[in-house]
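New to this. Please check this record:
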Amino acid sequence: MGKVAAKLKVMPESPEIDLDALQDRLGDALPEGARINGFERDDIAFGLVALLPTVIVPDDAGGTEAVEESIVEVEGVESVDVENVGRI
């Protein structure tokens, strides 16, 4: 069984969202077997900054759907998109 790395783009609800606290909530919300392997930040516009976590999931987990569903439910998250996926 291998692992898959997925780079996600998480858009906060507003520029006022505390990104450090949001990062913590994202890590806590992940389904069993998934983990975050680092964050990047991307300035979007007008003070809005997207979080770009790289999430590691087991290959047999059925893709990134469970991760996406858990992240979009986190308080302060507007949307989540998969930017890139690849095997480790």
Summary: The longest strand covers residues 35-45.
